[in-house]
Amino acid sequence: FAICFFQPVHHCTHLADSLALPTSGRARDFHPLDCTHAEHTKTQPSLEAQLVNIADAIAYSTHDMDDGLRCGLLTHKELFENVPIYRKFFEEVEKQYPGLSIRRSQKEVVRRVIGYLVDDLVTNSSEKIQGETLKSVQDVRNLQYPLIAFSDEGIAQMRVLKSYLMQALYKHYQVLRVMNKSSRVIQKLFEQFTSYPELLPPSFYEKAINGGVQRAVADYIAGMTDRYAVKEYERVFNPSYEASN
């Protein structure tokens, strides 16, 4: 589970403009199922931004389901009983491949769930786009609703899946412990680097001097993997780290 939540958009200024994310924004404020960009900016994001937003939701939800099963925080029995889309595809896999091991069946189910959500998104979005007369990006932004979207059935399936993951996985005490520690690592690194920017690597120190300390520190931390962030925390705060590593 990732510990860096504020990775900035560097590679596409048009996409960044379309998303118009505030510096202090949280990913959940822009969730494609629960909240729309239009609620914050009074316009729709570009088609590219809409697609990236929902593709990200598909990837995280399905892979978190797979990771939860693999590490034992989620169980087949509970998913089968509480998530209809999981039950549907597991029954299909069981019928098509009798005798397949439970773990291989689960991975095939995850693959089919991804396929279902992608197909639903493409089909519904294509129909919505074809129903509009669009000549520019501004036409997309001026609409009262997004064009890249699941069908009603797709939305319902995603809501059930995400709701279950929230209760059974993201709020699991073991996950919350890790998240609490991760939050403290990020917070302490941010506070230390903003107070002493000279501790930053040269390229980020230069950014801090020329473009603002907080922005440079946020960019540096956002680019870290979980493991690197923990190592950097040790380098900064543990006096004996360099001697023993």
UniProtKB/TrEMBL annotation:
Hydrolase as a keyword? yes
- Keyword annotations for this protein? Hydrolase
Q: Which domain of life is it from?
A: Bacteria
Domain Phosphohydrolase-associated, chain residue ranges per copy: 148-235
What organism is listed for this UniProt entry?
Answer: Turicimonas muris
GO molecular function of the protein, one example?
A: hydrolase activity
| InterPro entries noted in UniProt | PHydrolase_assoc_dom
Name of the protein in question: Phosphohydrolase-associated domain-containing protein
Instruction: Report the Gene3D superfamilies cross-referenced here.
Output: Hypothetical protein af1432
